[in-house]
Amino acid sequence: VDAKGTTTTFIVREVKIYDAEANTSEVFSSSGTGAHLNLITCAGSWNELEKTHSSRLVVFSDKE
């Protein structure tokens, strides 16, 4: 909800898990029209030595 009280809704289109070393540049581009919102976060097991997770979870969504 924005300052004017307008609600914007996004519908989840796809969820993908990427290896931490994978080329994930596709999450930053779109061939479709309209607004998109992608959430990128950590997933998988925690590597204490490297201080990182083994994979990345990406949720792709489109403005309704």
Describe the structure.
With 64 residues, this protein is an all-beta fold. Helix content is 0%, strand content 53%. The protein has no helices and 3 strands. It has a 3-stranded antiparallel β-sheet with strand order 1-3-2, with no helix packed on it. Strand 2 and strand 3 (52-63) form a beta hairpin. It is elongated, with a radius of gyration of 15 Å.
Instruction: Enumerate how many helices there are, as a single number.
Output: 0
Gross geometry: elongated
User: How are strands sequenced across the largest beta sheet?
Assistant: 1-3-2
What is the share of helical residues? under 10%
Head-to-tail CA distance between termini: 14 Å
Q: Look at the structure and give the mean pLDDT.
A: 92
Note the run of SSEs as H and E: EEE
Low-confidence stretches: none
Largest β sheet strand count, sense and barrel closure: 3 strands, antiparallel
Please count the beta strands (DSSP E, at least 2 residues each): 3
Give the radius of gyration: 15 Å
Structural class of the secondary elements?
mainly beta
**What portion of the residues fall into strands of 2 or more residues?**
over 45%
Keywords:
64 residues, mainly beta, three-stranded antiparallel β-sheet, 0% helix
